[in-house]
Amino acid sequence: MYALFDLCFQAPPNLVTSEQRHAAESVFMDFRKKKSPFQLCKFILDTSKVEFVLFESAGLIKEGLIRQWKDLGPNDITVLRSYLMTYVVSNTCLSSYVRERIVQVIAIVVKRQSIDDEGQDRRVLLTETQRFITSGNMQMQMVGCSLLSALLTEYATTVKSSDVGLPWEVHFFLKKQFEVTELKSIFEFCLQALKELITSVPVPIPPENKNLLLRLITLTEAILNWAFISINLPKKLISVFESDHNPSLRPGISWKETILDPSVVKLFFELHVKIRHDPELAHHTLNCLVQLSSLNGIVVAKRDHRVEYLRNYIENFLCMFQKIDTIIPSEALGFSNIIRQLLICFPRTLLAFLDQKLLQEFSKKIIQLTIHAMKASYQKNNLDDDASVFREAFEHTLEGWMSITNDCPGAIKEFKHSSSVETFNAFIQCNLCAPDGTRGTHGDEEDDDEIGDNDDESDRVKFKDILCTIGQLGRKVPEHSLPLLSQLFEDRLSRLHGQIQRKASQGNGTIDKVLGSLYEDIHWIILISANVLAYYDGGETAIIPIEIMQFSLAKSKEVDVETSMRVLASPGQPVSDIPGYQSTDPVIRLISGIFKYAEVEKRAVEAGLGHLLSPEVSSSIMWSLQRISLTYLVLQETFYSEISMSLIFAFGQNSEGAAWTMNFLLDKIISNLNALHSEPKIVDETIELLSCLVDEKEKARQVLKCPSLFLLIQLEAQSMNLPPGAKRGLMKALVQVGSTCEDQTSRNAYWSKVLNPLSDRFNEIIHRPDIKKVYHDEKIRMSIISIIESFIGVVNGSSVITVQQIFLFLQPVLQQMVELLNIYHNYPNIVELILEFYGQTAHIASFLNQEECKILYQRSIDILRMYTHHNQGKRIYKKEMEEEQFNDVLLLMKLLTSLLSKDFFSLVRGDPGEDTISAADFCLFGLNIIMPLMSLELLKFPSLCSQYFKTITSICKFYPDKICNLNPLELQNNLIASLELGLTTIAGVDCVFSLCCEFIQSICLHIMETNNKDVPIYQSIRPFLKVRTYFGSRAKVVKNEIFGSLVFLITFFRI
Prior knowledge:
Helices cover 70% and strands 0% of the residues. It is mainly alpha-helical. Among the domains are: 34-237, Leucine-rich Repeat Variant, CATH 1.25.10; 460-652, no CATH class; 677-790, no CATH class; 814-933; 960-1054. Helix 34 runs antiparallel to helix 35. The two termini are 62 Å apart.
């Protein structure tokens, strides 16, 4: 029967016709469906030499066993198991994948039999297996190791193990049975075998010994990675444990004597030292050591046991380094993981119970590994694999060291300071060029005039975690880090002045190697300084780190506040030129260094030397100014139990220092937007800085008082060169500032300067008599795009205080946008912006009164009709057009959803109802308009599909009566048809099925409560009684929703 298949595999491809190959495939497909295939498979195994055929035959035996287990007698199973065992033992030349397939079948048989014989056959098999491994015959050793590996696989991964036709709970029961009885015995056997091998095997390891050693270490690794569960957990929780691919070592109490034996840890360290130069073996020994470092649970429940185990592990860890000269790159990550696991699984309080000398040696070794990994990562090319490995190892060891220093035992308190200084200095040296650093001394330095050009991800993002930890380390030794950073910064700024003057005098407009290297230094000094001075990752209010505040307080007796203010307010003057500059507050001095570089950039731009600036450093300086502004500027004194007077004078509310700083930052923002608008990253960071200055009421009030604010207003009105996003962000910030005006008169005066010029520019274009002739002109189109972006910024900047005035300003704009859409309906970018403008305006609907809402509803209906008028029936013949329409319809759906929230807020606030159109009425009317555009192809876009069903389900849940009495009936029919699509055709969006079920439940519940079956939708939902036929593989995900819908429907139609 298999002759044709044999022929196809043995013959060259050019001699096998397509018909023959298809015939062979058909034969084998039929072969897989055979019932009781055991005799046939035996025959094939005994006679065929084609390994793929042997592999498939073994697979068929497996499937037959699973399928027909209940029909087979005990004797049949025993005979089959014996045959397979004999076959594997007698055919020692089998390919590994065939052998593994057959021993997998043997493992499945043993596992199934253990239900009835409580593991008797399993114990017999293990005895045979151990005999194979100790026989000295390499082939038999491989067979024995394969059998052990197959048993571990079948018993360990109960969630992923072979489906042998048993309930999941039985799988778990068998795993526990195996765990308690044989798993420890296998582990002890492997340990004994490894002990014998390590003493007898020479170095380098012969191939025959290496194979056995690899299999034994792999088996041990699998046992150490075993997901031990000591209690009977519910199925769902067990699944969580089993799905953990990197579980910690948590054996049961029966393992206590074995796992706490000091020789176990010692064995693996000695084994690693012996085979460390073989990457294939060393990888597994390191994994074993990492797992041993994570020991926890009941076997070390007593503190004495944990301390003793930790002591033994650290001693062997340190002893290992006495036997190795240099760390291999492949080892670095393993060693760092050992340190991290030790400090995670063994609380820092346990370290206090260790011998002080041992703890100090361990701490020193961590620092040595940290600095070694750090330097090694910088000696390699950034794209080198070894550099990535060392960088990750550096992160892990640094993280481990920081966990010790955060709450260090007394034994290492003295060592903590010197090691923190050493690590901080090493990081700075790695990132600076000679003579202060080592960057570029190993031939690893790239062209610094191209920094940031080769990688879209900035250094502050790529190295975010490392910089954050280094910043934390610097804050632990502020008396060292702050003066050092200030000195380095001031030295680079002085050299930068000279280099720019040199380039200007030479008339050279390029950044050469020297200047590029200098910029790279400044770039890293800025990143490190900002991370030392402040930590802010979004969310909570940024406050000055306690270490910085305490350091500033401690220096208060040595600080002259007036001198500190003079240093801060003199960004164009070298610090050394200011009398008494040594008495400057160290925190203010470092911040002033950042300000000085910002001033250098501003003056270089004014002198026409902007081409000599580094865009990457410009971006970094703006980011650092954001951090400083968020943390220091207009600081809230109530947030601190004690506060430095110098910081209050420099950055406190209503202080002269804060006023000067705010105006200085606005000048820098204006300079960037004027001169560096062609650099998107710089512009984005600049707008982000502006947002930081107005995001709080007190800061915005300070901005309102700045003389430079009106220059910023003029810039918004006059500049056409800003990127669209920048126009939006700029106008948003200006509107936010307007909300801080003290009275209506001053606010009106402010709006006349900010909003009126925007309105005038818009009216000037839209009211041109020849607009329909010149609308396609690029200059006009760009002006329109710029203006719409500004309008969106106006909406985004509105608040509860200003929303009424803002909407009054926007009313004529909303009406004119409809005509603008009519003109530019063939320009997708403008259409999308107009729709986005409406969607953003809809967000403020909750704060409008009924009359204003009516206007907004009407204008939204107008824009829906205009868009549908130009797009209904449009033929889509390009993928790009389909995506454009998807974006447009998604924006329209978001518009409807945003307006619907108006009614939700009214319900929550308890606003009295009025005899007006509701948001739900508008949304349904709008749906009726755009429904013809909702094709099946568009609904295949997950985000649009999800938004559509969220919208209709929300309306149904809050306003089921409106859904039940839809008019026209065409909309009702469309809704029902879309529900059926959501339950059947649309795949890949799991929430859609649930939303459809919620829709059905809401309708049924409403009709039952009102006892009104005369509504038009009553008969339309009857077909959904077949909801159970609508789902296939998604049943598990939405099981509750399905049953809930069925219960509602059955109850509903029986009433």
